[in-house]
From TrEMBL:
It comes from the Bacteria. It comes from Kaistia dalseonensis. Its main location: membrane. This is MFS family permease. The chain crosses the membrane at residues 36-59, 71-89, 95-117, 129-150, 156-176, 197-218, 238-262, 269-287, 299-319, 326-348, 354-375. CDD domains: MFS_YcaD_like. The lineage of its organism: Bacteria, Pseudomonadati, Pseudomonadota, Alphaproteobacteria, Hyphomicrobiales.
């Protein structure tokens, strides 16, 4: 039974990743066709992550009351209806409202399936399965922009294509047994719910919250604004979407390797190394544009290391926490990532309007440089075991 539960959860993670990789360039390019300013396109991307900041603190309690399977099914069904609303009412206001709703659901299903998977696997295989889920996520995310290249960004076809995996995901969610995870994530009666959850998550795993926050800034800004970066350098829509695909391909290949290195050589040194590579490769993009032999490896390494930093955090959470704390810290991690997504995309889009396209790689590299300085600082003794 456990193997089928894990396989089903991995399927849902893959479906959500496919939609993530598909929807970010889709919304950016489709809104660019409407001649919206870059900061508005960045705002649209920010709306995709802001909702989890409001619903995230209550996810553990909702999981307990609805059941994790029914909740995930609902989180797939609502974006299905949101894409349908865009299809029925092609208005900019609907595009923004639907992006907020479906972004909230995508962020919540992302966090919830991570809780589900961490509660379903055993300690012996946790690292391999979590890293494998990261690779699966990256592969499906890589397919998303390629699918967009086939469907285009205008007309009803890209919307209909996005609705298919949402419908399938809702059905699969209802078929997966979820009793064990619900038992693990049931809240106690000591106030570990609501807005206080994020403060508890910071107390348990403060440095991991910062890792999630910076990963959110880097990954969301790159995923949503790389197509615009490519267009600014004279690329076609399809070629601009392939920049995101190459970025995502790095996740598919490198995440497993980073997990293996962390098991062999220690999580702190691997986390610092991944952050360093993310900083350097992102900073190289202005030099690499127009030089495919340099651009492709730089995007590949940047995507793999940014995703690897996030994945290492998830492994650490599953390793160090169980039951209520697993749900609370996982939710806090997702909220920190989403906060980074919200803070990152809109200001960076505005910086692009002010200073040009090169503001994207420069701003992201600066953020990871700051994280690198934080991680490389001398460590004081900590009361909790999860800090890297």
């Amino acid at each position: 039974m456990r193997i089928w539960r894990v396989a089903g959860i991995l399927f849902l993670i893959g479906a959500e990743a496919l939609l993530y990789g598909y929807s970010y360039p889709f919304f950016s390019l489709a809104l660019e066709k409407r001649e919206l300013a870059n900061w508005l396109i960045g705002l649209n991307a920010s709306l995709a992550g802001i909702g989890i900041l409001f619903v995230g603190p209550f996810l553990p309690k909702v999981i307990d009351r609805l059941g994790i399977g029914r909740l995930v099914a609902l989180l797939f069904a609502i974006p299905f209806l949101s894409f349908g609303a865009i299809l029925a009412f092609d208005h900019v206001g609907v595009w923004f409202a639907a992006r907020f709703v479906m972004g909230t659901c995508f962020s919540a299903v992302w966090t919830t399936t991570e809780i589900w998977l961490n509660g379903a696997v055993d300690d012996r295989s946790r690292g391999r399965i979590i890293a494998g889920s990261g690779t699966l996520y990256a592969i499906c995310q890589f397919v998303g922009p390629l699918a967009l290249g086939l469907t285009g960004v205008t007309g009803s076809l890209p919307l209909v294509v996005a609705m298919v995996p949402l419908a399938v995901g809702a059905i699969v969610s209802m078929l997966i047994p979820s009793t064990e995870v619900e038992a693990d994530t049931t809240l106690d009666e000591h106030g570990l719910e609501g807005a206080g959850n994020f403060r508890i998550a910071i107390a348990f795993a403060g440095s991991l919250m910062l890792v999630a926050f910076m990963s959110g800034i880097g990954e969301t800004a790159m995923q949503s604004l790389l197509p615009l970066y490519g267009l600014a350098h004279g690329l076609s829509d399809a070629a601009a979407s392939r920049l995101v695909a190459t970025f995502s391909l790095g996740e598919a290949v490198l995440v497993l390797g980073l997990g293996w290195l962390a098991d062999r050589h220690g999580r702190r040194i691997v986390l610092i190394g991944a952050t360093l590579i993310a900083t350097v490769t992102t900073a190289l993009l202005p030099v690499a544009m127009g030089r495919p032999l340099l651009l492709e490896p730089a995007l590949f390494l940047a995507g793999g290391t940014i995703a690897g930093v996030y994945t290492l955090g998830i492994v650490l959470i599953g390793q160090d926490f169980r039951g209520q704390r697993l749900a609370i810290v996982s939710t806090g991690f997702g909220m920190a990532y989403s906060a980074g997504s919200v803070i990152g995309a809109t200001p960076i889009g505005y910086l692009i309007d002010l200073f040009g396209a090169e503001a994207l790689p420069v701003a992201v590299a600066a953020g990871f440089l700051a994280l690198l300085v934080f991680l490389a600082r001398p460590r004081a003794k900590r009361a909790v075991p999860d800090s890297p």
